[in-house]
Write a structure and sequence with these properties.
Layout (H helix, E strand, L loop, with lengths): L1 H18 L4 H13 L15 H4 L9 H17 L18 E7 L4 E2 L3 E13 L10 E2 L3 E7 L9 E6 L15 H6 L3 E6 L2 E6 L5 H20 L4 H10 L7 H9 L10 H16 L4 H18 L4 H18 L6 H18 L7 H30 L4 H33 L1 E3 L2 H8 L3 H17 L1 H27 L4 E3 L5 H21 L4 H6 L2 H19 L7 E8 L2 E7 L5 E4 L5 H11 L9 E4 L4 H11 L6 E4 L7 H13 L2 E4 L5 E5 L2 E9 L2 E8 L2 E5 L14 E4 L1 H6 L5 H7 L3 E4 L14 E2 L4 E7 L4 E7 L1
Parallel strand pairs: 5-7, 13-14, 14-15, 15-16, 20-21, 21-22, 22-23
Antiparallel strand pairs: 1-3, 1-6, 2-3, 3-4, 3-5, 6-8, 9-10, 11-12, 11-24, 12-13, 17-18, 18-19, 19-20, 24-25
Helix pairs in contact: 1-4, 1-12, 2-4, 6-7, 6-16, 8-17, 9-10, 9-11, 10-11, 11-12, 11-13, 12-13, 13-14, 13-18, 14-15, 14-18, 16-17, 18-20, 21-22, 22-23
C-alpha cells in the first residue's frame, strides 16, 4: 500500500507541474523539507509540534503523510527539471536564422520510410554560410536535430555527418487535433528540423560501442529475415521479432489496427510474455530455478535493448521480470499487490522520462496491463461457472476454460481498460477484435518460436535455417490473410465522434472501478461490506460507464456538425456548433420521430435547443412544431416562411408565447450570426417556404427549399435538396444543380422508384440519418440507418 500512495502522489506532481509552471527549485525545496521532517525528532522543535501528526506514521496509509507531499514535490520537480532551457549555445537558437553547415552524429537507428528516411542527430558544431556560400568560422553547439532525407538513406548509427541547410522549428502538425508533432519531438529533446539538406559523412563508429554492436546484430537479423521469408511475411516478422515495422504496407497495418490486433506487431507485454515463458522453460531444464530466473531476466533485458528499448518494451520487460520473481516467491501480482507493482514500475519509468504519461503507447501498455490484473481472474471465474452449468465433464470443462482464458478472456480483459484510451485518441471502436483475436492469437507463440529459431540459426548458417522457415511461413501467412479478410468485412470498426478529456477520464474511472471493487471492499467495514455486493457495484459502474460514454460522444469537439434526419422525403436538420450550440431547422411531419432522433443527439442532462429555423409552413410541419415546443426547451425561433392567418400558425405562436420563446421573421437576404463566424442567411421567404444558406470559414451548406432554381453565386460545399421538390419541380434540373458547383449534392428520399441521379450524387433512404462534419476547411460525410 505505501508504494501505491507514493506512486499516485508522484503522478499527481507530474500533472500539477504540467498545469502550473512553478519553479523546479521551489518544488525541490518543498520535497526536501517534507522528506526531512519525518526523520526529525519533532519534540525538540516545539514550534513544529503541530506537524507531528503529518510527520508521524499513519495507520491507514502505513507511512507519514508528509512523504506523500515529498513524492508529489519530487514528481513536479522532475517534470520541471526536464523542461528545455534554450540558450545561445543550443542548436535551437539558430532555427530560421539562415543557412548553416552543421556537424552532428547519428544517435538513433535510421527511421526508414517508403519514400524517405528520418535521422536523429546530436549537433557538435555549426558554421554560418554567407551570401556567397562561403563557410564562416565554426562554433560549438548542443542539441538534437531531426533530418528528413529522400529515399532510403545509407547513413547508420554512429556516423558523423556534415549537413548544409536551414535548421527550423519542427512543424506543429499531426493526424488529429490532439497530436502535436512538435510536442512529440520536444519530449525526445528535439527542437530543430532540417529537410533534404546537403549531406556528407566525415567519420564512422562515433557512437556507443555496446549500442553499436546491438544495432549491428539487429541489422544482421533483419537481413536474415528477408533472406528466409517472402513479403508480406518478412515485414510482419521484422515487426514481431525486431520491432522494425516501417516495412509493413499501409493497407496491412490498417487491417491490424481495424481488427484490434496491432498489439501482435508492437513488441509489448504479449510478445515479452511469450519470450519469458520460452526462456524460463529452456533454462529451467538446465539450471536451478533461481539461476533459470536470473538468466531469463538477462535474456529479456538483452532482447529489450536489441529491439530499441521503447517505453512499451521497457514496461513489459520490467513487469515480466517482476512477475517472474513473484512466481519464485510464491506471489501472484493481482489486486493491490499487482496495482502496487504496476504503479511503482510506471513511476520509476516516469522518473527517467517525465513526459511518458502523455505518450499514447505508454498509456495503452499501462491500460492493457491494468486490465489484465483487474479482470483476467474474474472473467476466468465467470467462464468456469458458466461451463459448470453446462454439465460438461470436469476434464473437458477445464481444457475449454484454459483455452478461453488464454486466448479470449485475456484479450478481453486487456481491452476493457484500453477502450477509453482508444476512443479518446483514435475515435475508433473495433468490434471484430472480439472474434479475430481468439482465432489469430493461438498461432503466435509457435510463430514466434519457429521464426525466432530460424533467425538465430540463420545468423550462424543460413541454409540450415531454411527448413525451419518453411514451417513458420504458413503461420505468418495465416495471420496476415485472416486479419486482412476480417478487416474487409462490413461493420467491424465503428468511427465515433472525438471524446473530450473529462468524459474520457470519467469513462476510464468507470471501467476501472468494478475491477478494484474486491480490493476496496476488503478495506470497508463489515457492516458496509455486507450491504454492498460486487454485482451491485458492477451494475452501477456499468450504467455509469454507459451514461458517461453517452454524454462524451455528444460533447463539443470544435467542429460544426449538420445532421440530416430524412422524415419521409422532408429534410429536418440539427445544427451543432463548435462551442456546443444546438439549432434545429424545421420539425418534419412527425413530432414523435424527430423527438426520438433529437433525444439520441442531445445531451440527456441538458436537452435544450438554442434556436429553431422554420422554413416549412405546411400544416403537418407546424403541428409537429407545436408538439415539439412542449418537449424541448427552446430559446428563440426564426421564420423564413409565412402562414399568417392559418390555424396551425396560430397554435405555434401560442405555444411560443406560453413557453416564453422569442420569434423573429427573416426576410430574403437577411442573415443571423448564431455563433462567432457562423452565419445563417435566408435566401427566400414566401408562403411556399424558405431557403437557407449556412456559412463558416470555407464551408457553405445550402438548403434551396422553395427556390425555383438553385443559387449559382454561393459555390456551396454541400447542397441538400428536398427530394419531393426536386422530383416535381421541372425547373430544378440536374443541369441547374450542376451549375451551382457544389462539391457534394444530397437528395432526400422520394419513395419508390428512386430517382435516376447523376454520378457522385447521394440519395438518402427513408428515416436515414446523415451527418456532415467540418472544421471550416475540410468536410466529412457519414451516412447511417435509423
Amino acid at each position: 500500500m505505501p508504494l501505491l500512495w507514493l506512486s499516485l502522489s508522484f503522478f499527481a506532481g507530474l500533472l500539477l507541474a504540467s498545469l502550473f509552471g512553478w519553479s523546479g527549485w521551489l518544488w525541490l525545496a518543498v520535497g526536501i523539507f517534507c522528506a526531512w521532517l519525518p526523520l526529525w525528532y519533532l519534540s525538540r522543535l516545539p514550534h513544529l509540534h503541530g506537524l507531528k501528526r503529518f510527520a508521524g506514521k499513519s495507520a491507514r496509509l502505513k507511512l507519514p503523510p508528509m512523504l506523500l507531499l515529498a513524492a508529489l514535490a519530487l514528481g513536479a520537480w522532475r517534470y520541471q527539471s526536464a523542461q528545455p532551457t534554450l540558450t545561445s549555445g543550443m542548436l535551437a537558437a539558430l532555427n530560421d536564422t539562415g543557412i548553416y553547415q552543421i556537424t552532428a552524429i547519428v544517435t538513433d537507428p535510421p527511421d526508414l520510410r517508403d519514400q524517405s528516411t528520418l535521422l536523429t542527430l546530436e549537433a557538435k558544431t555549426a558554421a554560418r554560410l554567407d551570401a556567397q556560400g562561403h563557410t564562416l568560422p565554426a562554433f560549438p553547439v548542443t542539441g538534437k536535430l531531426q533530418v528528413s532525407l529522400p529515399g532510403r538513406a545509407e547513413w547508420q548509427y554512429g556516423d558523423q555527418l556534415t549537413l548544409q541547410g536551414q535548421p527550423s522549428a519542427p512543424p506543429n502538425q499531426g493526424e488529429n487535433d490532439r497530436f502535436s508533432y512538435a510536442d512529440s519531438l520536444s519530449q525526445r529533446g528535439i527542437f530543430s528540423n532540417m529537410v533534404y539538406p546537403r549531406i556528407g559523412r566525415t567519420a564512422a563508429d562515433q557512437g556507443d560501442p555496446v549500442m553499436q554492436g546491438l544495432l549491428s546484430l539487429r541489422q544482421s537479423a533483419y537481413a536474415v529475415i528477408y533472406a528466409l521469408f517472402p513479403a508480406p511475411e518478412a515485414p510482419l516478422l521484422s515487426g514481431i521479432l525486431l520491432g522494425v515495422d516501417n516495412d509493413i504496407s499501409a493497407d496491412v497495418m490498417r487491417a491490424f489496427q481495424d481488427t484490434g490486433t496491432a498489439h501482435i506487431i508492437a513488441i509489448s507485454g504479449f510478445n515479452i510474455a511469450i519470450l519469458a515463458a520460452l526462456f524460463s522453460r529452456m533454462f529451467s531444464r538446465l539450471f536451478t530455478r533461481w539461476w533459470a530466473a536470473l538468466l531469463t531476466v538477462l535474456a529479456i533485458t538483452f532482447y529489450s535493448l536489441l529491439v530499441g528499448a521503447s517505453p512499451s518494451v521497457l514496461r513489459a520487460a520490467v513487469m515480466g521480470c517482476l512477475a517472474l520473481t513473484g512466481s519464485l516467491l510464491g506471489r501472484r501480482f493481482s489486486g493491490w499487490s499487482g496495482l502496487n507493482t504496476l504503479l511503482f514500475t510506471a513511476a520509476i519509468m516516469c522518473l527517467g522520462d517525465p513526459f511518458l504519461p502523455w505518450n499514447i503507447s505508454f498509456q495503452l501498455s499501462f491500460g492493457a496491463t491494468l486490465g489484465l490484473m483487474l479482470y483476467a481472474d474474474p472473467l476466468q471465474n465467470i467462464a468456469n461457472r458458466l461451463l459448470t452449468l453446462l454439465r460438461l465433464p470436469p476434464s473437458a470443462a477445464q481444457k475449454i476454460a484454459a483455452m478461453l482464458g488464454e486466448w479470449v478472456l485475456l484479450t478481453l480483459a486487456a481491452q476493457i481498460v484500453t477502450l477509453p484510451i482508444m476512443l479518446y485518441h483514435f475515435q475508433r471502436l473495433s468490434l471484430s477484435a472480439l472474434w479475430v483475436n481468439p482465432l489469430v492469437l493461438p498461432a503466435q507463440p509457435l510463430l514466434m518460436t519457429l521464426s525466432g529459431l530460424a533467425v538465430l540459426v540463420g545468423l550462424i548458417w543460413l541454409p540450415l535455417a531454411r527448413p525451419i522457415a518453411w514451417f513458420a511461413t504458413p503461420l505468418s501467412t495465416y495471420t496476415i490473410h485472416l486479419i486482412q479478410s476480417a478487416a474487409h468485412l462490413p461493420g467491424g470498426t465503428i468511427t465515433l465522434e472525438p471524446l473530450q478529456t473529462l468524459p474520457a477520464l470519467l469513462l476510464t474511472a468507470a471501467v476501472i472501478a468494478p475491477g478494484l471493487y474486491p480490493a476496496i471492499a476488503a478495506q470497508l467495514p463489515t457492516k458496509v461490506k455486507t450491504q454492498l455486493s460486487p454485482y451491485f457495484w458492477m451494475v452501477v459502474t456499468g450504467l455509469a460507464a454507459a451514461f458517461v460514454l453517452r454524454i462524451a460522444l455528444i460533447t463539443p469537439d470544435s467542429r460544426l456538425h449538420l445532421t440530416l434526419f430524412d422524415q419521409s422525403s422532408v429534410p429536418v436538420l440539427l445544427l451543432q456548433t463548435p462551442s456546443g450550440g444546438q439549432y434545429l431547422i424545421d420539425a418534419g411531419p412527425s413530432a414523435n420521430r424527430i423527438s426520438a432522433a433529437l433525444g439520441e443527439k442531445l445531451n440527456p442532462l441538458d436537452h435544450h435547443l438554442d434556436g429553431i429555423f422554420i422554413t416549412r409552413c405546411d400544416t403537418e410541419s407546424l403541428q409537429s412544431m407545436t408538439a415539439l415546443v412542449a418537449r424541448f426547451p427552446i430559446h428563440q425561433a426564426w421564420w423564413t416562411c409565412s402562414a399568417i392567418g392559418t390555424r396551425a400558425y396560430t397554435d405555434v405562436i401560442a405555444a411560443f408565447s406560453a413557453q416564453g420563446i422569442r420569434s423573429y421573421p427573416m426576410s430574403a437576404n437577411q442573415s443571423v450570426e448564431i455563433e462567432k463566424g457562423i452565419q445563417v442567411e435566408s435566401l427566400a421567404n414566401d408562403a411556399q417556404g424558405g431557403a437557407l444558406a449556412l456559412r463558416w470559414q470555407n464551408f457553405c451548406a445550402v438548403l434551396p427549399g422553395s427556390l425555383a432554381a438553385p443559387p449559382t453565386s454561393l459555390s456551396p460545399s454541400i447542397l441538400i435538396l428536398d427530394g419531393l421538390t426536386f422530383k416535381l419541380q421541372p425547373t430544378f434540373t440536374p443541369a441547374d444543380v450542376h451549375a451551382v458547383g457544389a462539391s457534394t449534392v444530397l437528395v432526400t428520399n422520394t419513395g419508390h422508384p428512386p430517382l435516376d441521379l447523376p454520378g457522385g450524387w447521394l440519395q438518402t433512404q427513408i428515416w436515414q440519418q446523415v451527418t456532415v462534419s467540418t472544421d471550416g476547411l475540410q468536410m466529412w460525410l457519414e451516412m447511417g440507418s435509423k
